[in-house]
Amino acid sequence: EFAARYRAAGYWRGETIGGMLREHAGRRPDAEALVDPAPERRSWTYRELDERVDELAAGFTARGIAKGDRVVVQLPNTAEFVQVTMALFRIGALPVFALPAHRESEIRYFCSFTEAVAYVTVDRHAGFDHAALATLVKDQVPTLREVFVVGEAGDHTPLAEVAGDPAGLPEGPGPHELAFLQLSGGTTGVPKLIPRTHDDYLYSVRGSDEICAVDTSTRFLVVLPAAHNFPVSSPGWLGVFHAGGTVVLSPGTDPATAFPLVERERITMTGLVPPLAIVWTDAVAATGHDLSSLKSVLVGGAKYSEAAARRFEPAFGCRLQQVFGMAEGLVNYTRLDDPYETIVATQGLPISPDDEIRIVDDHDQDVPEGEFGHLLTRGPYTVRGYWRAPEHNRRSFTEDGFYRTGDIVRRTPGGHLVVEGRAKDQINRGGEKIAPEEVENVILRHPSVHDVSVVAVPDEYLGERSLAYVVLRGDAEPLRAVAVKRFVREQGIAAFKVPDLVEFVDEFPQTGVGKVSKKGLRAAADSAQDQ
Ligand code: OOB
Prior knowledge:
By secondary structure, the protein is an alpha/beta fold. Among the domains are: 12-30 and 44-200, 3-Layer(aba) Sandwich (Rossmann fold), CATH 3.40.50.980; 427-530, GMP Synthetase, Chain A, domain 3 (2-Layer Sandwich), CATH 3.30.300. The chain has 17 helices and 27 strands. Strands 2-1-13-12-14-15-16-17-18 form a nine-stranded mixed sheet, with helices on both faces. A five-stranded parallel sheet has the order 4-3-5-8-9, sandwiched between helices. Helix 4 links the parallel strand 3 (70-73) and strand 4. The longest helix has 17 residues, at 46-62. The radius of gyration is 23 Å and the shape is globular. The protein starts with a helix and ends in a 5-residue tail after the last helix. The structure holds 5'-O-[(R)-(benzoyloxy)(hydroxy)phosphoryl]adenosine.
């Protein structure tokens, strides 16, 4: 019923992501599509990119990767990331978007839970040996037949050798079929995977392009990890491809890396999380680089404080767009022509007139207009459930299909949403999401630990940091905070999940029903000392 409505309204147009690239290659073959500036500049026109994607798609096919197969992709911001994901889209294999920061624990889980047939990674990145990680994971996950490595592949298959004859390419996916599995921010012991279809995702991309004025002249710098939903599609590199513009991949996030690229590549648009936007804003005054090509910058992923937002436009002399989105679907933007006060003080309006927004109390009753409550949403590009998680879906979605975002918002008279807080058990560390339960489970493996609770503490720069309250066993030797952090790191999880602070306590604050009160812990954490 909803699908018919979304098709009739023209939201779901029957396009595929692979088809979209092919169309540009036909229409504007010589336009610059992709630039990978490091270590030396390489660039691809739409025709060249389309050809490489075809060749890779055929190479993957020849190695037995087929429609519907899951492939875990963990690559830094390099051309290979874009080419591999586009090739998988083209054959209908589903990329599972890991982040470069993920380690053994996450990668093993993604591979085993999705029964992935292949894992695509890089030899080394940021001092970490990903090829060795791949060997470990391959030994543990029986479905994993292939590992493709960018660079020195060792026992694995070098990605550079993956090429086939596109003449033999099988028919690609249909527009209603799954395109990929995106990671949820997560509130539980293991991350949930979000199934997105070509039709629904491309609608959000098209809508984003319109709202952000992306066109053939757009030159977009991908600063954040390219696999995250924000830089993929808000409007992100897919939005830029959809509009026929140019995507430039930044190998780093710091001004020292990005500012010279903005100048050299005449970048017109980029997307940042709030802590980066703050660092960039501070760095603008002293930079010798010409940033005047920038027309707009999107900031989102975590709350951008009004004070920080007010400093943005005077520093950059270009438009700020706040974006409040989620990999599950709903994305809100402030509009380019919104009044300045709206741009600095709200997190925007939904993309679609058919994004249904409900703001409710603890009993799912609508709150009076203008008051804050839990945000529920349903619409043409918001999923109705996580992938293979029926149990969790009953909690995360209402019976009539609204997604419980876990965010606390209010709506201004103009319809803009203001994010006031969060009800879900999650830490938003400058846009990087941490599920406390996942970290707690890791800390609990320590033989001296009796119990643990991980909570968010306010942080001026990151917005939030993580604090682990640890109760030691009665007979355990005292532990130092650094030993707990080291232990977590050694368990092989992403560095951003290692608790920033560790406090040893005798017991946690209790709620009425005798359960650990995260709220009580957060209040206690407000006064916790830095370490
Ligand atoms: C983006 O996606 P996710 O899936 O990593 O995280 C979604 C969650 C939201 O539910 C909310 O809690 C938080 O991140 N969030 C914000 C925010 N943008 C996201 N909280 C306050 N203010 C904002 N502007 O983070 C994401 C996906 C697409 C576009 C942009 C961000």
